[in-house]
Amino acid sequence: MSDPKNTEASRHRINACDLISEEEFQELLGLFLPSADVRSTLHWETVSAELLIELICGAPVPLAKKFEWVELLESRTDRVDSAYEDSIKRIRRSKEDIENAIRELDRNPGELFILKELWFDEELLDTKESGGTPFLKYEQAIEYIREDLSYANEGDGEEPISDDDLLMWYELEKWTLGSHCVLEKTYTFYLVTDQVMWFENAQERPMHRYASWPATELNLPVPFGVGDILEFDCRPFKPLVRGIVLETDGGMNLGCCIPGVLTRDEKGKWIAGAMKHCHMFEGDPPMVSPLYRVKKFTGEIQDEDIGLLEIKDYLLGARDDGMTPEEKGKFLYRIYFESSNFDESVDEIVGDITDKARIGWIPTDAEHNIEVFVHTDDEGHLPHFHVRKIGDDYSVEWEACIRFDSAEYYLHGKHRSRLPKGVGKRLDSMLREVNIHDRNGRTYWECAIDAWNENNEHFTLQGIHGWSLRQPDYSEL
């Protein structure tokens, strides 16, 4: 029995199930949406026909194949109620746009094509382009591209380069003789290898280019969670990039600015932003949305991506530091936009947290003010804990080391700081409070002893003082 909430009368749009069978729907998704993760979120009964059009037109798929499917959808619009007039017009307009663009690949008297080669420069991390080469026929330009690709595939080394790994594409402009015998650009076709994927009708206003411009900001549900390491494949416009999810909506991430991800470019610079808006790339966004090929990364992390594992360990690590993975992700995401030097901040916070256990904050309900923690395998030979002040830009203003067995500083290595006036009293009070995150109802002080012993097996407090140790009066500091 059909869902009454999804009947045609109760909806205000045409859905995929109104135009194509479920088998056709799955075939369409398999062709135009390679990402199995994203495909899993789309359902025949609920996906709108207009979303299918956007998905088809923006996909890195040859224009001729797009026309086949848009024509099929348009041919089925007579099955639906005329109340959906706007949606029907959109579908028909898209079909007409693609059909006209394919027709424009033929040359008429007074017209010519100009071919430009573009590529992603991996040293400059930006797009470069060559000067235009004129052709009288579309077929001549395609033959030129094939010869150019054959040369590029040879590469500089012994191993040939596949088309997938070539970070190059082409723009083919069509120029027509206009008024006063001046050539005017009428169309630009965008080719990956020797296939036309997209086009731009220069005579149309951008808001009316229904089927032309790529869907660079495609908004589909994505089933990723905080800590997932993803691979973004927007080739040939950008190299393969891996990143980690920092912020989600806790569900299917329906908003256009969710999920928020963190990536690192080839020069080691961290970049954060909305995945669907392509904010994880420097410079101009790629011409293809990352949603088409995004997937969870399950391979072996390379050296350049080792930082992603450190962040994943920070987000999902087993240590109880008072924050959930979602809170940690939002914390890092906020740091990126608020810190004057994110690279230093993330190295300080994440780099340290991966080898330390946080005890808590002073005061305990503060948001990242004064932090109390112990190090893993600490270089100091006396059991101690660290207290540090996190500044407004998330830099460390000061850091002091304090002994467990007495209210004394433990000065060693680079750690020579002392607590500012009044902090010792606040520290003592905080450590005597019951840790709200501890299931056994212990104080922060007792949890700190446990954290030291679990992370510093060669210098345990049991081995020195046993469990008879009482909290010193740190208000004396």
Structural overview:
With 477 residues, this protein is α+β, with helices and mostly antiparallel strands. It folds into four domains: 4-103, no CATH class; 111-208, no CATH class; 217-317, no CATH class; 355-477, no CATH class. It has helices at 16-19, 22-32, 36-39, 49-58, 63-75, 85-103, 138-154, 306-316, 325-338, 342-353, 423-432, 444-455, 461-464; strands spanning 111-121, 126-129, 133-135, 168-177, 183-192, 195-201, 229-232, 241-247, 260-264, 270-274, 295-296, 356-362, 370-375, 384-390, 396-403. The strands form three sheets. Strands 1, 2, 3, 4, 5 and 6 form a six-stranded antiparallel beta sheet that branches. Strands 10-9-8-7-11 form a five-stranded antiparallel beta sheet. A four-stranded antiparallel beta sheet has the order 12-13-14-15, with helices on both faces. A hairpin with a 7-residue loop joins strand 12 (356-362) and strand 13 (370-375). Helix 5 (63-75) runs antiparallel to helix 6 (85-103). The longest helix is centred in the first third of the chain and has 19 residues, at 85-103. The radius of gyration is 30 Å and the shape is elongated. It starts with 15 loop residues before the first helix and ends in a 13-residue tail after the last helix. Residues 1-10 have low confidence and may be disordered.
Total DSSP helices = 13
Work out the count of structural domains: 4
Shape: elongated
Major β-sheet annotation: 6 strands, antiparallel
